[in-house]
Design brief:
This protein has one domain. By secondary structure, it is an all-alpha fold.
């Protein structure tokens, strides 16, 4: 396959992914994690207090909740009324009840940043793929999720891409650390 054909195929697959993902956002109900994560992200953005759901890092939750800063859903500013071990889930229940009329719309808009991050990851991995065709199968595409690797690649990928373009870097990129070979 010629490089321009690979580029067209990759762009087509990314566009297909984006369309399918965007189309499914309204059809799927909030998952058990989203039920707690998105309200927690909004709480973090509004209060700066990260104690609501401290088992996971807050950055992705906050990014997902960014559209809610414009939509301004009702939220409970005090979380201390909830027991510590169930706090995220009780807070999610309160959030759902306070925003019942537009709950599905809020989650639609809260999912869009995650789809954008996934497409961004595809764009970041795509240009680096061309130099790896002579390598083993486990190369730059071995990522388990779309969010954390995206933020890892944003600062790390450009130096490798530029270094390889000027031929003073090895032919394996930063993602090769996930390789078993």
């Amino acid at each position: 396959m010629r490089p321009w054909q690979e580029t067209v195929a990759a762009a087509g697959l990314l566009a297909l992914f984006f369309g399918l993902a965007l189309g499914s956002l309204r059809q799927e109900s909030p998952t058990v994690d989203e039920f707690a994560h998105l309200p927690a992200g909004y709480y973090y953005l509004k209060t700066g207090d990260f104690s609501l759901y401290s088992k996971n890092p807050p950055l992705i939750k906050m990014i997902a909740a960014l559209p809610w800063l414009i939509l301004k859903p009702a939220y409970e500013p005090s979380i201390f009324q909830y027991p510590t071990d169930l706090r995220p889930w009780r807070y999610g229940t309160t959030f759902m009840r306070r925003n019942q009329a537009r709950y599905a719309d809020l989650f639609f808009w809260g999912r869009i940043p995650i789809v954008i991050l996934a497409v961004l990851l595809g764009l970041l991995i795509g240009p680096g793929r061309a130099g790896y065709t002579d390598r083993p199968a486990h190369s730059s595409a071995c990522f388990a999720s779309a969010c954390a690797p995206t933020f890892w690649l944003i600062p790390a990928w450009p130096p490798w891409t530029w270094a390889r373009a000027f031929s003073f870097a090895p032919r394996s990129g930063p993602a090769c650390i996930y390789s078993s070979g």
